[in-house]
Design goal:
The protein is of the alpha/beta class and 524 residues long. It contains 13 helices and six strands.
Length: 524
């Protein structure tokens, strides 16, 4: 008995050590293969980043040329604005000249003061214009305009304070007027401190006013140059070139993301296949005839689920200010959309790929990828793996939405659809493609505005303005939470007809267009 017990223990130890050693060797193989993939892709990633930087510079260059090119029919308006800005610059420069003369007058410099004042009146606007031209930064223009505005408002406020003190002094003089008889003692005279108190405020006012005038003159000169210069290029052609460059940038970003994650994808697939094969082999060797039937049923269920095509799911959520209004229930449309996305993530099938993007005013130029995740293909014998994956997916989404707010000034749904087309371009034939949009579907950009018209005519001219049409062949589209607040039924239906025509032209099928937010039924 003791010999049999020792033999049993020896076999147990050898089996345990053998499996542990096997797993360790497999881990080394997986680690080295992942490292090989990452090193192989490293040079391609560097090349893509360099190419992406070059295309970004090209996009910036085209945007600058487009900024200097007026749209068709806009030249008269630009000339009028240039005349107005030039008049403002001349008036402020002349005012600066005379203010400088007043400052130099007590020093009696004679004709020299005129030379100084001419230089002072010209140098500041010139330097401001030169600074803006050399830096070529829109934020710097906004900053200078803000400083000038604040200084102008501050000077007006300080002048109002001086006027208030003057009014108070007048009231005080009226109240202290008395008739003194000859035999009464002389009353002490109250000293007037108005000028002593108002002088520092007046000095500060003049300083603020000088800053505001000089900065405004420089900004006006800069506006004149910007409005007068006409590159002579075609506005529509430049706009199409910029769209093509942005599409190229989106494609490079997609390739860069794929190459960066190829090593992690390989490792996940490797361990999935290893453990799956290991469990199946162990089941064949150890389970008896009593469990053979249940194993066959389980394998049959897994096979039937494996035959189901996985989903490539893209979710677009509106981040514009139009969904920030509260309804009768006290919740905003944005909060309802976030909750609907959470409910959808809680039921994604195994093997799905999920991408969540934001709809902003720059949906295509600056894609806002809120979340990207891949759900494991194996659900687990009791569904524990898919439940854990869904829970992690929901938690990741909740962390991402803590600082998410609907603060976009416009709604570029067409740009988000172009980004979606890029995301679906790498989809394999074995995947089903679905796009779920949580938005009021009111496109609002300078190119196409569907928010203000009373009725939306669905014709070829309107669809022409929506070009380039996103390529969404084989994609099922669901537009949910299409709020009808403040709209008539006829206008809501005309907006629906526009999107039906758009998705039909893009090759997609619009499966649902509803004000409700019920999550779509996904098999698995």
């Amino acid at each position: 008995m003791e010999k049999e017990s020792n033999t049993h223990n020896l076999g147990h130890e050898l089996g345990y050590e053998g499996v542990e050693r096997l797993v360790g060797q497999v881990e080394e193989v997986c680690t080295h293969e992942r490292r090989r993939i990452e090193l192989t892709n490293e040079s391609r990633i560097v090349g893509l980043r360099v190419e992406l930087a070059l295309w970004a510079d090209e996009e910036k260059r085209i945007s600058e040329r487009l900024h200097l090119t007026p749209p068709s029919g806009d030249r008269g308006s630009r000339r009028l604005k240039a005349w107005f800005a030039g008049s403002i610059a001349v008036i402020l420069t002349v005012a600066g000249f005379f203010f400088s003369l007043l400052a130099f007058d007590p020093f009696r410099l004679g004709w020299k003061s005129y030379l100084y004042c001419i230089g002072i009146a010209i140098v500041c606007p010139f330097c401001v214009d030169k600074c803006l031209e050399e830096w070529n930064c829109r934020k710097l223009v906004k900053g200078m305009a803000t400083v000038a505005c604040v200084a102008a408002i501050a000077s007006l406020v300080l002048l109002a304070v001086i006027r208030g003190k003057l009014f108070a002094q007048d009231l005080k003089d009226l109240q202290t007027t008395v008739v003194v008889s000859d035999d009464s003692p002389e009353l002490p005279q109250t000293e007037n401190h108005f000028y002593e108190e108002a002088l520092p405020i007046l000095q500060l006012t003049m300083a603020f006013l000088a800053v505001a005038m000089e900065l405004a003159a420089g900004l006006s000169v800069h506006d004149v140059q910007r409005l007068v210069i006409d590159s002579g290029e075609n506005f529509e052609k430049l706009a199409n070139e910029r769209i093509a460059v942005r599409q190229r940038i989106a494609g490079l970003m997609s390739q860069l993301s794929e190459l960066s994650g190829e090593g992690a994808i390989f490792e996940a697939q490797f361990w999935r296949n290893f453990y799956s094969a290991m469990l199946k082999h162990a089941a064949k060797k150890t389970l008896g005839k009593v469990l053979a039937l249940s194993l066959c049923l389980a394998v049959g269920a897994l096979d039937s689920r494996a035959e189901q095509r996985p989903w490539n799911l893209v979710i677009a959520i509106d981040l514009s200010a139009s969904v920030a209004s509260r309804g009768p229930d006290g919740e905003t449309d944005f909060e309802k959309n976030v909750a609907a996305v959470t409910a959808l993530l809680a039921q994604v099938p195994a093997g799905s790929r999920v991408t969540i993007i934001g709809i902003t005013e720059h949906s295509f130029a600056e894609p806002d990828i809120l979340l990207r995740a891949a759900v494991p293909a194996e659900s687990g014998y009791f569904g524990e793996r898919i439940r854990g994956a869904r829970r992690q997916l929901v938690e990741a989404w909740k962390r991402r939405t803590v600082r998410l707010a609907p603060n976009a000034k416009q709604t570029d749904i067409l740009g988000a659809l172009l980004v979606t087309g890029q995301l679906f371009r790498e989809t394999s034939d074995a995947e089903q493609k679905m796009l779920v949009i949580y938005s009021d579907m009111r496109q609002a950009t300078p190119v196409l505005n569907l928010e203000t018209p009373v009725a939306i005519p669905v014709d070829s001219a309107l669809l022409k303005r929506a070009e380039p049409i996103a390529r969404l062949n084989g994609v099922e589209v669901l537009a949910l939470g299409v709020d009808a607040a403040g709209e008539s039924v006829a206008r809501w239906e005309s907006l629906q007809q526009f999107w039906v025509a758009y998705f039909q032209k893009s090759g997609a099928s619009l499966r649902s267009y509803s004000i409700l937010r019920n999550p779509p039924a996904l098999d698995g």
